[in-house]
Each structure stands twice: as C-alpha cells, then as structure tokens.
Amino acid sequence: MIQRCDVKEVGGKSYRCFFELTMQVIGGKWKPVILYHLSQEKVLRFGALKKSLNGITQRMLTKQLRELEADRIVTRTVFNEVPPKVEYSLTELGESLIPIFLEMKKWGIRYEECIAGEVITGDTYESVDDPA
Amino acid sequence: MIQRCDVKEVGGKSYRCFFELTMQVIGGKWKPVILYHLSQEKVLRFGALKKSLNGITQRMLTKQLRELEADRIVTRTVFNEVPPKVEYSLTELGESLIPIFLEMKKWGIRYEECIAGEVITGDTYESVDDPA
DNA sequence: CGGTATCCCACGCGATACTG
DNA sequence: CAGTATCGCGTGGGATACCG
Q1: Cβ–Cβ of A22/B105 closer than 8 Å?
Q2: Span B38-71, pLDDT tens digits
C-alpha cells in the first residue's frame, strides 16, 4: 500500500525520498552542466568555467558554485595572486556523483533516440482528422 | 582543453550535455517524487498519487503528469466508468530510468550521512566568536 | 580576474472555484 | 473522481554597474 512520505530535512533541504534530495543538490538550470564540466576537467578556473557555460552571468555562476560548495560537492581554492586566481574541483563527495552522471548520460542518449524516432514514425493510422 | 558545448535540441528541450537533458525530463519540484512512487507501485490512480504527494494541487499534478506523458515516461489509461478512473504507470522508457533512481538513492543516503555528520563535528576549534 | 550590489522580470507553482 | 479555468504571488534567474 502506498503511503504518504514524511517530509524529512537535511542541510536546509526538505525531501520525501532520497531521489528528491539528490535532485535538490544537483538540479536547477546550471548545476548539471557545471558538474558535467568539472567531472570532465578535474579542475577549472572561474573564468574557464564561465567561458564553457555559454551565457551564464558572473553573478549566477558565483551563486551556483557557492551552493555546491556549501553542499560539499566542490572545493574552492583561492590563490593570493594578482590578478586573482580561483580554482574549482569536485570533492570526494562530488566525485561520488559520477556514477549518476554516467547513468543519466546513457539514459539521455536513449531518450533522444526515442523522441527523435517518434517524430518520424507515426504508426500506420490512416490519416485521421487531416482535412488537407 | 575545455570547449563550449553546442546547444542541441530535442522534444522542445535545449541542452548542452545528456546529463542536462535527462535533468530536464525528471527534474522540478514534483517529478522526482511522482516518479519515485510510480516506480514503487507500478500503477497508481490519480487520486492515490495525489494522496501520496502530500500537498500537491490537482492542477499541478495534472500538469506534471501531462508533461511526463508527452515525454513518454508515463502512460495514462482512462476507464470509461462513473465515477471516472484514470491510472498512471511507467512506460518502458520510464522504467529505464530506474537505474538512475537507484544510483541517486544510494548517493542521497551518502550525502545525508555526510551533511548530518558535519553539523555535529565542527572540528576542534576553540569556540570562536561565541560571546554567550 | 573574480567577484558583490542593485534592480527587475518571467514563470513555476499555488489557492480557489467550477465541471463532466 | 479526475479533471479544467482564473487569478496571483514568490523566487529563480538575468542585466547592469561597481570593487579589491
């Protein structure tokens, strides 16, 4: 029998299942792509990350990175140089997300094929409701 | 060298990596929990789903289910009865998401432990900045 | 270079009411 | 029971300007 899930809370996030909790950590408009790049490149400077995320504003990138840092997914390393230099990379906890990334990549490819295929097919219905 | 990802498009969603594409299909406030329940129960009536998602409005649930249906993740079966009866379940494509769910559940548990642990620990700092 | 500080808008999401 | 139809707000996200 299906039951109402209690709402739990951890690290300021409320969730009803672990699936949902994980989505709150890696979800949103930018985090998936940020994490994708970091998982590919190991370590990236702020500017490099910004260039690779075509279109993100500095404010947004900073905000996303701060959140990921608070969630212990990325580390932020500041070099006291002029000009300034800040590097980001995945923490151990962040790297433990990689199996998820791989599963999602596999599924994304499958989904793309599925949807792309469907546009063409259209079964063998005799044209229903097409007055043209 | 890191490069700008081109923005691709499929099924009305634009994305720069498959990870991001997948997130667009299963992300949002409600979809994770909806999918969680459907993956547990195989088939659920609209009302049962609504009861299990403590707090969702009818309008929202309908909207989320329609989107998942359009993305071929769930099927909608209408029974011509009085009172009406509509059942939802995962499609084959939807079921292929399950490996992702399992990875995310595993990670969510790990994350919870990690964050919960950190709140207590607080290293061995001599209480800094605590005038009480 | 790598950030804040303001200001602002779109839209995701919700509350409520009504219907076949 | 399983929906639409309206109305409306909060906030995720963006544009721009300035700072160490």
Answers
A1: yes
A2: 999 999 999 999 999 988 999 999 999 999 999 9
Note the pLDDT tens digit of each residue in B96-114: 999 999 999 999 999 999 9
Handedness of CA A69, A75, A77, A83 (dihedral sign): negative
Task: Give B96: exposed, middle or buried? Use CB within 10 Å, 0-12, 13-18, 19+.
Answer: middle
- Cα(B107)–Cα(B113) distance, rounded to whole angstroms? 10
Is B54–A105 a contact, with Cβ atoms under 8 angstroms apart?
A: no
The whole-number pLDDT of residue B11 equals 87
Give, in order, the Cα–Cα distances in Å from B46 to each of A15, A128, B26, B39, B80: 21, 29, 19, 15, 14
pTM, whole model, 2 decimals? 0.88
Contacts of A61 (CB under 8 A, 6+ apart): A30, A34, A46, A49, A50, A53
Does the beta carbon of B17 lie under 8 angstroms from any beta carbon of chain A? yes
What is the structure's pLDDT at A2? Answer: 62
Cα separation, A111 vs A15, in Å, equals: 27
Chain A residues touching residue B116 (CB < 8 angstroms): 10
pLDDT in tens, A7-59: 888 988 999 999 999 999 999 999 999 999 999 999 999 999 999 998 899 99
User: How many A×B Cβ pairs under 8 Å?
Assistant: 156
